[in-house]
């Protein structure tokens, strides 16, 4: 009987090809897709309770979408060559087609929807601000300064249509990431027909959680009262989506256990050893079971506002940790065993390297910097002063 050997891989002992940056990439795109889906609840499905988070969700999706391709760019040996995917499209490559999916979602969906939703505000700000802000807002108007009721109605209908188109586009943006992993037949850790669906629902979970946390944080920083009806509704959708996501992951696990092919023993050994902490402890116990229980308590028990806020904050943070752990276990875990299922290796992450921990931290912080800039230029909450200025504007 052959016994797996740790630290040596048969027959292909090589370093891991995908690092923490490739873990970060699906995590960031998941936040984009999830935030946009939350925004669509108000625009398309008329869930008025989540309206206070609508604009914030759009800006959050844009901020993370601007950073999403950077991990891939840094991973490339020659990132300047990435533009060639547009010049010489390769339709049979799922990786190459990402560029077109990204460009479509960024320009044709997200940016256009934000512009249509903010057009009235941009026009007003172009007339009431001074200096470089006035010039910037005038550029952002794109020459369209008509803010009559009829023009705004057209903007509303066009924005609704773009959101409808954007929902399947958001599914495509992140679902294809799971498709890439799920289509690798040679790797039993990834090869699963449920992989795209699991990635998609986990993206919705993470996006809803980050918008909920940002809304609570920014509202508190502005010293404004938190709309508890809004937060309760967002948490409810987070809870329901989390249940579906967890059920899909358990279904995938049951399928693997029932199938029990030649790779199952090796994968089971790896989960109980090298990935025990990140998979069992962090992803399942801390990042999935705990937030689901916390959110379930808020659904069945009558708690005061302060207690619910604290529970939502803890549950949201644990949710993000769990989703990141899930990405880690998929990307890194799928590279720790050999093709012969006899040997294992260890991922050693550097600190100050091109694909090290420091770069991953910087790329995680960068979207929040972009979001801070976007919030300053395009406030996601109704400003009373803005409408007062609009009334006095010529």
Characteristics of this structure?
394 residues; mainly alpha; two-stranded parallel ribbon; 70% helix; globular
Low-confidence region ranges: 384-394
* Biggest sheet record: 2 strands, parallel
What is the chain-wise order of helices and strands? EHHHHHHHHHHHHEHH
Q: Strand portion, in percent? A: under 5%
Radius of gyration: 23 Å
Widest β-sheet, arrangement of strands: 1-2
Structural class by secondary-structure content: mainly alpha
Overall structural domain count: 1
Task: Produce the secondary structure layout.
Layout: E1 5-6, H1 20-43, H2 54-67, H3 70-75, H4 84-87, H5 94-128, H6 131-140, H7 149-182, H8 195-221, H9 228-259, H10 264-271, H11 276-300, H12 305-331, E2 343-344, H13 357-377, H14 384-392
Parallel strand pairs: 1-2
Helix pairs in contact: 1-2, 1-7, 1-8, 1-12, 1-13, 2-5, 2-8, 2-13, 5-6, 5-7, 5-14, 7-8, 8-9, 8-12, 9-11, 9-12, 11-12
Structure description:
- By secondary structure, this protein is an all-alpha fold.
- It has one domain.
- Helix content is 70%, strand content 1%.
- Strands 1-2 form a two-stranded parallel ribbon.
- The C terminus is likely disordered.
Give a brief description.
By secondary structure, this protein is mainly alpha-helical. It is 70% helix and 1% strand.
């Amino acid at each position: 009987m052959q016994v797996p050997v740790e630290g040596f891989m048969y027959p292909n002992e090589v370093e891991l090809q995908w690092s923490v940056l490739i873990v970060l990439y699906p995590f960031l795109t998941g936040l984009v897709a999830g935030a946009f889906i939350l925004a669509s609840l108000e625009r398309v499905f008329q869930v008025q309770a989540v309206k206070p988070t609508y604009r914030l969700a759009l800006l959050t999706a844009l901020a993370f979408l601007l950073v999403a391709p950077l991990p891939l760019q840094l991973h490339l040996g020659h990132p300047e060559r990435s533009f060639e995917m547009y010049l010489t499209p390769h339709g049979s490559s799922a990786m190459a087609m990402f560029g077109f999916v990204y460009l479509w979602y960024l320009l044709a969906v997200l940016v256009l929807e934000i512009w249509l939703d903010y057009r009235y505000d941009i026009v007003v700000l172009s007339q009431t601000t001074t200096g470089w802000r006035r010039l910037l807002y005038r550029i952002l108007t794109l020459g369209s300064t008509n803010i009559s009721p009829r023009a705004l109605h057209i903007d509303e209908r066009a924005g609704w249509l773009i959101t409808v188109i954007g929902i399947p586009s958001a599914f495509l943006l992140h679902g294809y990431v799971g498709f890439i992993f799920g289509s690798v037949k040679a790797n039993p850790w990834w090869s699963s027909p449920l992989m795209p669906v699991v990635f998609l629902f986990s993206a919705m979970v993470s996006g809803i959680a980050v918008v909920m946390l940002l809304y609570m944080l920014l509202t508190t920083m502005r010293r404004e009262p938190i709309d508890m009806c809004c937060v309760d509704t967002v948490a409810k959708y987070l809870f329901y989506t989390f249940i579906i996501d967890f059920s899909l992951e358990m279904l995938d696990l049951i399928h693997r256990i029932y199938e029990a092919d030649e790779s199952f023993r090796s994968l089971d050994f790896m989960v109980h050893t090298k990935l025990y902490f990140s998979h069992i402890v962090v992803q399942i116990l801390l990042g999935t079971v705990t937030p689901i229980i916390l959110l379930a308590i808020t659904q069945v028990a009558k708690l005061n506002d302060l207690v619910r806020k604290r529970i939502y904050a803890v549950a949201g943070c644990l949710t993000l940790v769990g989703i990141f752990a899930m990405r880690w276990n998929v990307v890194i875990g799928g590279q720790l065993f050999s093709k012969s299922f006899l040997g294992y290796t260890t991922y050693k992450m550097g600190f100050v390297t091109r694909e090290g921990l420091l770069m991953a931290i910087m790329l995680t912080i960068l979207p929040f910097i972009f979001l801070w800039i976007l919030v300053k230029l395009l406030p996601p909450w109704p400003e009373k002063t803005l409408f007062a200025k609009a009334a006095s504007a010529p």
